[in-house]
Amino acid sequence: MSRSRPPPTRDDHATFVRTEGWQPVASTHHETHELELHDGRVLRTRISRPPDRTTHGPSLWAHVLRDQLDVTEQEFWDCVRDGVAPDRGAPQTPDPAATIPAEVVHLLVERVGLTREQVAALGRDGAITRLNEYWADGG
Question: Given strand 31-36, what is the order of strands in its sheet?
Fold first, then answer.
């Protein structure tokens, strides 16, 4: 842990999950939260209640950061202190202008005899051009 920061507390941990929008889940022993990521993974963290109210030791806290929160110490503190959620990557949405229409894919596969991989490699403009060539050649 950095010397410029105090050891993280249970309240810091709770602030992190609240700020990033983790969802509480039922648990009998610990306050437990989950976060669904865009890549399909689900992170789960447990906010322990130490009986003597001490902070987590360095090795336990390193485990929480790495394996439960999946963030660096800097990302954790940026979230807790400044409200800056970690960059988890945005969901990848295809550009509609670059998407090959389904009917074009179907015709290139079924009539022209291309594989889906070949159609994808053509891109939108190339696929439409290839289909037009097929029709122009009497397809």
Answer: 23-25, 31-36, 42-47
pTM > 0.90: yes or no: no
Whether residue 31 is found in the same domain as residue 61? yes
Closest to 47 in 3D by CA, of 21, 73, 27: 27
Domain match, 72 and 101 both: no
> pLDDT by residue (tens digit) across 79-122?
999 999 999 987 777 778 789 999 999 999 999 999 999 999 99
Q: How far apart are CA 69 and CA 48, in angstroms?
A: 14
Q: Mind giving me the DSSP string for 63-128?
A: HIIIIII---HHHHHHHHHH-------PPP---GGGSPPHHHHHHIIIII---HHHHHHHHHHHHH
The answer on 78 and 54 residing in a single domain is yes
